Amino acid sequence: MSSFRVKGGLKLKGEITPQGAKNEALQILCAVLLTSGKVTIHKIPNIRDVNKLIELLADMGVKVNKIGPESYTFQADQINLQYLETDDFLTKASSLRGSVMILGPLLARFGTGRLSKPGGDKIGRRRMDTHFTGFQKLGAEFHYDKKKEIYHIDGKNLKGAYMLLDEASVTGTANIVMAAVMAEGKTTIYNAACEPYLQQLCDILNRMGAKITGIGSNLLNIEGVKSLKGTEHTLLPDMIEIGSFIGLAAMTQSEITIKDAQIHRLGIIPDTFRRMGIKLEFRGDDIFIPAQKHYEIETFIDGSILTVADAIWPGFTPDLLSIVLVTATQAKGTVLVHQKMFESRLFFVDKLIDMGAQIILCDPHRATVIGLDRKYPLRGIRMTSPDIRAGVSLLIAALSAEGTSVIDNIEQIDRGYQYIDQRLNALGADIVRVD
């Protein structure tokens, strides 16, 4: 297990470019299974979860060729379906939650799929019902082996259907869309997720020859086609990294420019951080955050305490609530952070409390943060990263704290942020990776 040793209290300065979006990468990589043609993808982040999925695709028979630091070509013209029956496949797929999205393409193109119960962050229960109900609506039959925790899916005769999703699941919508693009007839998906990453997936599928309309809304219409072709695609910058860097700049009183942020795709993220009192300047497609000694949390119009809650897009992404929470610890004012979608993502606040933060954990979903305007700086401690997003929040806290902190289990952080120690050290941070 590796650790970060972090010297706190340093002010950072400079430019940083966000990596390609992890959540988009996992969807787009699965989509290469839909065609025998060559698919070129740019801005692929070099992070553990993405690399694991690329390795899994290669094991399935996809020809993978790295053509640049962040660019790959993929060609799925000789998929080995027998590999799906091996224990090696089940083991590798179960260690990566994003691997569930290979099911839609496999059903669409080959009429069969097999997957063990996916892994991923321990951030609460995340159901697969939306995925499988959607496949059933298209005519797939599935069986679950409780003893082995293996799903067997038969999708040889997929037909278009109308469906109202029980939740606007991003991965569920992506999976169903990829299954439906080659199903016979028309599919209508209501209450579909409409995140920018899902829009990107629909865009690449259309360039491959799919017929999807309603992109960007919660009502998608899909006309099934016989086959798809290869194409080229560039991932969006990771909005979670962008939000993390905004919070980092505020916490450490740093002057940072976030390059090529594609601001028009960020939704309410910038405005949410502005409500936390953080100054942002848009310079073309770059975000400039000036050094701020003080920032004050807004109240609601009637003077009541601000609540920041997660919601499906275009609401505030749950992946940035931990960043808002840690940023609030050094602000002036109080905020209620309400994590509605997952029940375990706030449990890292005990580490912040140990560092000196004033936080009341109301229940598994809500925490009240009392910002004392840097009157009591956080202090360095030893702590463990419980998941990707909490891990980088603790890293931000450590960078702002007095003294030295040690963060264990940084493999969790590596799953979502590429070379984060090197990139922040280039801005003036002092982060040492210790094996």
UniProtKB/TrEMBL annotation:
Q: Which reaction does it catalyse?
A: phosphoenolpyruvate + UDP-N-acetyl-alpha-D-glucosamine = UDP-N-acetyl-3-O-(1-carboxyvinyl)-alpha-D-glucosamine + phosphate
Instruction: Please give the InterPro entries that the UniProt record associates with this protein.
Output: Enolpyruvate_Tfrase_dom, Enolpyruvate_Tfrase_sf, MurA_subfamily, RNA3'P_cycl/enolpyr_Trfase_a/b, UDP_GlcNAc_COvinyl_MurA
Q: Which UniProt keywords apply?
A: Cell cycle, Cell division, Cell shape, Cell wall biogenesis/degradation, Cytoplasm, Peptidoglycan synthesis, Transferase
Any one of the GO CC terms: cytoplasm
Q: Does the keyword Oxidoreductase apply?
A: no
Domain Enolpyruvate transferase residue range list: 7-422
- Protein name in the entry: UDP-N-acetylglucosamine 1-carboxyvinyltransferase
Q: What's the encoding gene here? A: murA
